[in-house]
Amino acid sequence: MKYNMKKWLADLAKNKKPIPLLSFPASQLLGVSVYEFTHNSMLQAQGIAQIATKTDGAAAVCMMDLSVEAEAFGCQIQASEHEVPTVVGILISDEDEAEALNVPEVGSARTGMYIEAAAKAKELVTDRPVLAGIIGPFSLAGRLMDVSEALVNCIADEDFVHAALRKTTSFLKEYALAYKEAGVDGLVMAEPLAGLLSPGLEEQFSAPYVKEIIDAVQDDNFIVIYHNCGPNTPLMTESLYNNGAGAYHFGDAIDIEEILKKMPSDKPVCGNISPSEQFLKGTYDSMYNETYALLERCSKYENFVLSSGCDIPPGAKWENIEAFFCAAKNFINK
Predict the structure, then answer these.
(1) Measured distance between the N- and C-terminal CA atoms of the chain, rounded to whole angstroms
(2) Whole-angstrom Cα distance, residue 169 to residue 330?
(3) What angle do CA 137, 138, 144 make, to 5 degrees?
(4) Distance between CA 84 and CA 250 in Å, rounded?
(5) Is-cis flag, bond preceding 242, omega within 30?
(6) Total Cβ atoms within 10 A of residue 216
């Protein structure tokens, strides 16, 4: 089923359904390891479908594995049975290496498998939109040159960073278009590294590249939700709004109400129950109370949408996930 996603966005805050970044805990439902889950498209699709059956979310959100795109470029990936894959080592160390870097074909490494998984999930989930997940351009550049080096190089070697960003943006545009062609309804773009920059540096090294990707894919039937969990995001709301995303999603490193006060009310702002402190380490009662309190505090903002602060980890307790949805339902029906 195809959705008018422009209308879906307009209704998102009105229908009060949460939209957590919930995918990895499906490995528990299927009884498989995280390694298996991140290397098998059918398992991913079945997991997303089971989550849709088990929870009443506004959309089904596919995997947010931020190692996939870096692996396609040639980065070394550390994978384990029970943890989300991570990037290790450095692929490029100067401007010349960035300029010489080949932009991979979409479908290389595990990117093809992830596109296939999202397409299969779209076939299985028929009662709500299905959103894919990709990394943002500056966050991907940071994985190619090392996160700390990327932050330093924004001041020490601007040309190097821009050279890397031209390559990452070129690839991510094609990757996003491939998801669109696969039939899903949109994607969540995670650009957390940009949230560690100053507002001025974010405007230079993230904003124009993010906007380029969004402009290439977003229309009435396909949306981009921009995610940032960096602590500096309240300082850069004007720039973030101007990237043109259909909606915005913020992490628990910041006070979501501070963002809501600053962001225009015509775009949904989603957040931000802590994935680690509540979904992973909390109890049913602590999750319920935290979620209900956030709804009481932020529901006065017409564009607020309840969500997790970031991607929910594989080991999150399902009783805590259930408490999250229970609090949302009871708040709506009070």
Answers:
(1) 32
(2) 42
(3) 90
(4) 20
(5) no
(6) 15
